[in-house]
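OP here, attaching both records as promised.
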Amino acid sequence: MSTRFCIFCHSACVIQQLASAVGTFGRVLECWDRQTREYVAIKVVRSIRKYRNAAMIEVDVLQHLAKNDKGDSHCVQIRSWFDYRNHICIVFEKLGPSLFDFLKRNKYCPFPVDLVREFGRQLLESVAYMHDLRLIHTDLKPENILLVSSDYVRLPGYKKVSSDEMLSRCLPKSSAIKLIDFGSAAFDNQNHSSIVSTRHYRAPEVILGLGWSYPCDLWSVGCILVELCSGEALFQTHENLEHLAMMERVFGPLPEHMIRRADKGAEKYFRRGLRLNWPEGAVSRESIRAVNKLDRLKDLVSQHVESSRFSLTDLLHGLLMYEPSERLTARQALNHPFFNNLTS
């Protein structure tokens, strides 16, 4: 490690959260910056050519984001980068836990809708900022959204789990968040890979091989907001046909014009060209049960949200439109009534 930085192993909170985004090609270490006299997070990328190349692309994206940032982008800040024994090391500001890890530590207790509103507003502002720069994140998920602070408060007696035991609830002291992991970000005018996004947050146009652009990020935002309100991912699946069946269960039939344009690889998911091959094509009875237990979107939201449920449902319908061109843009979503605290 550069002599400017020393590794600090006492509190690995932000390290663990950022590491979840790094995956197999590196680690994130919490370090003390001797020059600025502050703790930072350093993403250390393995010394393998393809990982190094990807890291340098991420550095370029991060520097592009930072250059245009007026302090309100809600994107993680790159401090510097260096090459250490053929490992690319990217220095970031230190942040708190991811929204996913906060949910996990909270036994998947959902966030209050007012907190979801604040998270959603900031997330959409960061997406709008990226899109204005012609960048598409392509991997939005709760693991890639970090709380700025690790501080939280514990509220007792939230939920009864037995006759003599009440489940406590933790809430972050601050709603401030930042978006991380730009390793998969792409400029709109670049050649696009066919598959993007982590499975649970992948838009239908990606699964159907129709190509993708800015709207794929907004689909992911919709899935994230449902998860923050309910405590669990909307589409808990690892298989394309089941994923499409889950979408139809929640939103209704896929549009015929999208099915007609699906690529050859997606044709096997449909029968007679236009009807989803479900449940006939299900791989197991468990798969059929997983689909059948899902509710329509408005019913799902109503189970977990009381105040603002109508405006939230309307916002989610706009973000989770099948047809990408009909989906709300980030700027349009920010103007939605849900982000007015007086909504009912």
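Record two, same layout:
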Amino acid sequence: MSSFELVTYNQPRAFITESFRTLRANLQFFEVGDSLKAILLAGGGFGEGTSFMTANLGVVFAQTGQKVIVVDCDLRKPQQHLIFNVDNNSGLTNILLEFKEPEDVIKDLPIAGLKILTAGPPSANPTELLGKNKMRQLIASLKEKADVILLDAPPLAVVADAAVLSKAVDGVLMVVRAMVASHDSVVRTKEMLTNARARILGVALNCARMNEAVENYQSHYANKEKIIKKETEIKKKAPVKK
């Protein structure tokens, strides 16, 4: 998988990868992976980076040895099959339209423990399809197959899909993109989820300005590596006591 968006897979030592590990740890405080399994990631508008957050969070959860399934619930403009570079010939819509069983369309990925359920062929009525009891049954069955299920949803302020889905999951993680989302849009998104009686786990801030933090992080570990290397060289040169 060479997608530039999979930073947690392609750049395991990058600062942004550490940020995803921190987000994973914070979610584990809510017992995500234990009592909470199905988590919906939802943004307010276009360009929040929900698909990016879902994919990379799936990678870091799988890297802990947990079984993870990423589900692309954006039936209008799916992105997960593009990020993970897999086909989208069959997927979620095939299951909800009762043509396929989950095991027939869930795909394995090169990362141990990580699987994907792509969106599948376009549907004429995405909101109605996601609101069917069949979707609740699917999420329940996926909980038996995995420790963590991460659902990628379309923007809340644009369509009702995410609000409908929020009733079928254990919790919702709001995705907010810095310099894109306005204060009002974040408030409206929270109100929509509250009205849907969703359990909001928190907010993931995407694309925050972290230049200074990145520089400090990189310089700290670069200096630490130099110190360790120097200490190793000194030890090698030190005379052996008889």
